[in-house]
C-alpha cells in the first residue's frame, strides 16, 4: 500500500477540552505517540482492518465487520494507555467527539434512505423502470437517459441508491447485449459521483463539508458546471461504443399505493426543512431530516387509520407516463420501521469503523506530519489534486473526514476544489466510490474492475477538465 495513501487515511485529531479542578474549561493536548508501541500497534490494526474490508469480494466478509472490530481494538488500546497514566477522561472525550460526528452522518443518511425505501414500496421506481422499457429507446439513447437521470437524481438521493436503480434497468434492457451493460454501468458510476459532488444532499464527502459550515449550501452549486463537464467528457467518448439496435419492449401494469405522491411531497418538504433550517437557524442538517422522519411517521399513521375508508381510490386505473397504472389502497399500509431496517447498514457501519479508526489514529499523533507535508511542502492546489487522485483507492467520505480535521487554512475556492476532486476522483477506479463498489456487488460478472479500468484514461481526462473549468469559472474564490 502506498505510504502516502496510508497516511491520508489516518488523519483526525479532535479538539479536546476538559474541566480543571475549579470547573473551568481548559484546552488539553494529547501526547505524541507516533514513535510509541501504542502508535505502531494502532497502525497495524488499522492496516489489517482496511485490507480485510477491501478483500470483501474474495473473503465474502462484509466490509463493516473488520472495520467495526478494528476500531474497537484501536480505541481500547489507546484508552488503556491513557488510563494507566491517569488521563482516561481525555481519551473518552476524544472518542465522544468522533462519535458525535458519526451520529450526525448516520441520522442524515438514515432518514434519506428510509424515504427512498418507502417510495420503493410505493412502486414509484418500478414505474420508472417500466416506462423506460416501454418507450422503445435505442441502446445509445438509453445510455444517455440512464446516465443523465443518474446525474440529476444523485443531487438529492444517495448516489449508491441511484446507481442500483439504474443498474437494474440496464440489466433488463441489456440482457441481449452484455457489452452495453458494462459500458452503461461505467457511465452510471461516473454520473453518480459527478452529480452527488455539487450537492450535500447526495454525496457523503460534500455533506461533511456542509455539516462543518465551511461552505454554505448555495456555494456548492458553483461546482455544477465542472461536475457536468466531468460527466460529459468520458460519456461523449464512450457513447461511440454503445451497440446499435433496440432492446425488447416491455409492457406491464404498475401498482402505486395510495399516498405515493404525498410521500414524495413530504420528502421534498424534508429537504427544504433541512436546507432552510441550516441556512436560517444554523441547525445541523440532521435536525431537518429528523423532522421529516416525524412527518413521514405521522402521515403513514394517517394512511393506516384511513385504509379502506376511501373506496373510490381503491383499484382506480389512471395514466402515469402513458402507462396503465393502478392505484391501490393497501390495508397493510406502510411500515416505517421495516423501511428503516432495510437501509444499507453494512455501509453505515463501515463508515462508523472508518471514522472511529481515523479519529483514533490521528489522536495518537499522526496528523501534524501529514498536514505539514500536504499543506506545508506542497501548494494547496497540488495537495487537493493529489488527495482527489488518492480517492480512487480510498473511500472519498473517509478522506474528506480526515482532511477536514486537519483544519487546513484554505480559501473558498480551494475548499470547492477539494470537494470536486474528492467527489469525482472516486470514478477513476471501480473501488474508489460507494456507487462503484455497490455496482460491483450488484452486477457481478457484467460490471467488473477491469471493465471499468479500461476507461480510466478518459475518466482521468474528465477529472482534469473539471478542474480547469472550476479555475476558469470560480477563479475569484481563490
From TrEMBL:
InterPro entries: Cit_transptr-like_dom (IPR004680), NhaD-like (IPR045016). It holds the Pfam family CitMHS. One of its GO terms (cellular component) is membrane. It is found in: Membrane. The chain crosses the membrane at residues 35-54, 66-84, 99-116, 142-174, 180-208, 220-241, 261-281, 286-304, 349-371, 383-403, 415-443, 455-473. Belongs to the NhaD Na(+)/H(+) (TC 2.A.62) antiporter family. Coiled coil: none annotated. It is a multi-pass membrane protein. Residues 1-19 form the signal peptide. The keyword Zinc-finger does not apply. The keyword Membrane applies. This is Na+/H+ antiporter NhaD-like permease.
Amino acid at each position: 500500500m502506498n505510504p502516502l495513501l496510508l497516511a491520508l487515511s489516518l488523519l483526525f485529531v479532535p479538539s479536546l477540552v476538559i474541566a480543571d479542578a475549579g470547573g473551568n474549561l481548559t484546552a488539553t493536548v494529547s501526547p505524541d505517540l507516533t514513535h510509541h508501541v501504542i502508535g505502531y500497534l494502532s497502525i497495524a490494526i488499522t492496516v489489517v482492518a482496511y485490507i480485510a474490508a477491501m478483500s470483501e469480494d474474495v473473503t465474502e466478509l462484509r466490509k463493516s465487520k473488520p472495520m467495526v472490530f478494528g476500531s474497537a481494538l484501536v480505541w481500547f488500546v489507546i484508552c488503556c494507555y491513557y488510563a494507566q497514566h491517569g488521563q482516561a477522561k481525555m481519551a473518552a472525550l476524544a472518542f465522544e467527539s468522533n462519535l458525535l460526528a458519526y451520529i450526525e452522518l448516520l441520522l442524515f443518511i438514515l432518514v434519506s434512505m428510509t424515504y427512498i425505501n418507502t417510495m420503493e414500496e410505493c412502486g414509484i421506481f418500478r414505474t420508472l423502470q417500466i416506462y423506460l422499457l416501454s418507450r422503445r429507446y435505442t441502446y445509445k439513447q438509453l445510455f444517455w437517459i440512464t446516465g443523465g437521470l443518474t446525474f440529476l437524481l444523485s443531487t438529492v438521493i444517495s448516489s449508491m441508491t441511484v446507481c442500483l436503480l439504474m443498474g437494474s434497468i440496464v440489466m433488463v434492457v441489456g440482457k441481449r447485449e452484455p457489452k452495453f451493460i458494462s459500458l452503461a454501468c461505467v457511465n452510471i458510476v461516473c454520473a453518480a459521483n459527478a452529480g452527488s459532488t455539487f450537492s450535500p444532499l447526495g454525496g457523503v464527502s460534500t455533506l461533511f463539508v456542509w455539516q462543518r459550515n465551511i461552505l454554505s449550501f448555495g456555494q456548492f452549486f458553483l461546482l455544477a458546471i465542472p461536475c457536468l463537464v466531468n460527466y460529459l467528457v468520458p460519456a461523449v467518448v464512450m457513447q461511440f461504443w454503445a451497440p446499435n439496435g433496440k432492446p425488447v419492449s416491455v409492457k406491464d401494469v404498475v401498482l402505486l399505493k395510495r399516498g405515493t405522491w404525498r410521500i414524495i411531497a413530504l420528502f421534498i418538504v424534508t429537504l427544504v426543512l433541512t436546507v432552510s433550517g441550516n441556512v436560517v437557524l444554523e441547525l445541523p442538517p440532521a435536525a431537518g431530516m429528523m423532522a421529516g422522519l416525524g412527518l413521514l411517521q405521522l402521515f403513514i399513521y394517517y394512511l393506516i387509520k384511513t385504509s379502506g375508508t376511501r373506496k373510490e381510490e381503491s383499484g382506480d386505473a389512471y395514466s402515469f407516463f402513458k402507462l396503465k397504472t393502478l392505484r391501490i389502497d393497501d390495508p397493510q399500509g406502510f411500515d416505517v420501521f421495516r423501511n428503516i431496517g432495510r437501509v444499507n447498514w453494512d455501509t453505515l457501519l463501515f463508515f462508523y469503523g472508518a471514522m472511529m479508526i481515523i479519529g483514533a489514529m490521528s489522536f495518537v499523533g499522526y496528523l501534524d506530519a501529514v498536514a505539514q507535508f500536504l499543506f506545508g511542502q506542497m501548494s494547496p492546489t497540488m495537495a487537493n489534486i493529489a488527495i482527489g487522485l488518492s480517492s480512487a483507492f480510498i473511500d472519498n467520505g473517509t478522506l474528506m473526514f480526515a482532511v477536514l480535521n486537519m483544519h487546513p487554512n484554505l480559501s473558498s475556492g480551494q475548499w470547492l476544489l477539494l470537494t470536486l476532486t474528492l467527489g469525482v476522483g472516486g470514478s477513476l477506479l471501480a473501488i474508489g466510490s460507494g456507487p462503484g463498489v455497490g455496482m460491483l456487488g450488484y452486477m457481478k460478472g457484467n460490471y467488473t474492475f477491469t471493465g471499468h479500468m479500461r476507461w480510466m484514461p478518459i475518466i482521468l481526462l474528465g477529472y482534469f477538465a473539471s478542474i480547469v473549468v472550476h479555475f476558469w469559472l470560480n477563479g475569484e474564490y481563490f
